Amino acid sequence: MSFERKCIEREQLFAFAKHLLGGEDENDVRAHLAECFECRSIIAQYERVDAVLDEWPAIDPSPGFEARVRAAVARWQELSAQESAALSPFFGWRWSQALASACLVALLAAASFWIFQGQRSHTSWLATRRAPAQAIGRGEVRQPPAERLEARAPVQPGEVEISLCQNLAVLEDYDMLANFDVLSELPRGNKKIAN
Amino acid sequence: MDQDLELMLRVGRGDAESFETLLRRHRAPLVSFFARMVRDRALAEDLAQEVFLRVYQSRKRYRPDARFATWLYRIATNLALNAIRNRKARALQCESDNAESDSQAAKVADAKPTVEQQLMRTERERIIREAVEALPGNQCAAVILHKYQGVDYRQISKVLGVSESAVKSLLFRAYEGLRERLEPLLKEGHG
Q1: Least CB-CB distance to B178: which of A49, A60, A61?
Q2: pLDDT tens digits for A175-188?
Q3: How far apart are CA B6 and CA B92, in angstroms?
Q4: How far is CA B134 from CA A30, A44, A52, A103, A104, in A?
Q5: Mind listing the pLDDT tens digit for each residue in A124-160?
Q6: Exposed, middle or buried by CB within 10 Å (0-12, 13-18, 19+), for B74?
Q7: B7 and chain A in contact, CB less than 8 A
Q8: Residue A6, helix vs strand vs coil
Q9: Could you give the CA distance from residue B152 to residue B145 in angstroms, rounded to a whole number?
Q10: Least CB-CB distance to A59: which of B19, B108, B182?
Q11: pLDDT truncated to tens, each residue of chain B (191 aa)?
């Protein structure tokens, strides 16, 4: 009985009309269409829509279209060439300026480091003179371990002067002077100094 | 390899002749696509020119990930949808555009039919144009790409950035809308 037959959904019929179905689905729709007038009429509607749409003609480009495109491309090329020409000296100057600045900063940093290192070694040398007299007597002053000097807190210039004044009494002792690095390294044949 | 794709790669290497070949191959389909989308011949040519300019501008960045036509129509569809949005925003301007495009369409209708035939044909074309234009943007683009540009479903899905099943659904809904709007013409044709 035809009224008991279940019709296929429109979307499925559209897919059939547009050849979007394949295999078993297509065969099922085809078999259904063979005995369903309603579904055949729906397919026919889609085909008529396509036929009517075909009446809408294509529009060809005007004769000057290609020339306009070429002109637009040429204009763009010209503009981009001008832009790059205008920008390149600016960027070149900017880059050279940046490079020069970087070099200057590097030089300043190196100079600061060098000056700081010089001050630090001088301060270290003075700091060795702060050692107690007993330690000097045992000869520890001659070759102070580097790590001990490093461990000390940085000595302020004023503090160094005070330390030297405090050690003046120690320097008057002849035995202590005999152990003093500079004097002990003097040539032995020099009678003036020996006396 | 896709011939267009090879031409495009040559354009990227500085071959001006290959650009000319691409221009000759795609100018008519593109202008026609835009004319159907925006219903204005002058605007259609402007937009087609813009597409070719963009193709040229991106010649060195172009990567052959998809078919050249897919890429071309993706640019074209975006431009057309933008133009339609802009036109809809200018509602008053729209009326004058319609009148102008109708007169241009009349000029486009070629051959030497009788005045009555020409009027009838012009009227049918107007109904078709209005029916297609009344579709939502994506449906309109899908119908034009499918029906007039011969773009397959997979490419349409890439152009519109949707799945293939979504394209089938878009087309189904579009044809349902067209079936209703074109009813007078369908009856005539059937009769």
Answers
A1: A49
A2: 555 555 555 555 66
A3: 45
A4: 33, 23, 16, 67, 68
A5: 655 555 555 455 555 555 555 555 555 555 556 555 5
A6: middle
A7: no
A8: coil
A9: 8
A10: B108
A11: 688 999 999 999 989 899 999 999 999 999 999 999 998 889 999 999 999 999 999 998 888 888 899 999 999 999 999 998 887 777 555 455 555 555 555 444 455 678 888 888 889 999 999 999 899 999 999 999 999 999 999 999 999 999 999 999 999 999 999 999 999 888 765 54
**Are A175 and A183 within 8 A, CB to CB?**
no
Q: How far apart are CA B146 and CA A9, in angstroms?
A: 22
Distances (CA, A) of A122 to A36, A58, A67: 110, 93, 82
At A155 the three-state DSSP class reads coil
- Nearest-CA distance B90 → chain A (Å): 25
Determine the Cα–Cα distance for residues B35 and B41; give it in Å rounded to an integer: 5
Burial letters for B30-54: b for 16+ Cβ neighbours within 10 Å, e otherwise? Answer: bbbbbbbbbbbbebbbbbbbbbbee
Whether the CB of B53 is below 8 Å from some CB of chain A: the reply is yes
Chain A residues within 8 A of B57 when measuring between CB atoms:
76
Q: Give the DSSP H or E segment for A12.
A: helix A10-17
DSSP states along A141-181: TTS--HHHHHHSPPPPHHHHHHHHHHTHHHHT-HHHHHT-H
Q: Give SS3 for A191.
A: helix
Residues of A with CB under 8 A from a CB of B: 10-11, 14-15, 18, 20, 45-46, 48-53, 55-62, 65-66, 68-69, 72-73, 76
Contact between B128 and A53 using a beta-carbon 8 Å cutoff: yes
B134, two tokens: 């009344």
Q: How far apart are the C-alpha atoms of B100 and B35, rounded to whole Å?
A: 13
Q: Are B108 and A20 an interchain contact pair (Cβ–Cβ within 8 Å)?
A: no
Tell the residue number behind the tokens 């193709």, with chain if given: B55
ipTM of the complex: 0.80
Task: Tell me the three state secondary structure of residue A122.
Answer: helix
| Chain-chain contact of A50 with B147 (C-beta, under 8 angstroms) | yes
CA dist A137 and A150 (Å) reads: 22
- Between CA A9 and CA A25 the distance in angstroms is 12
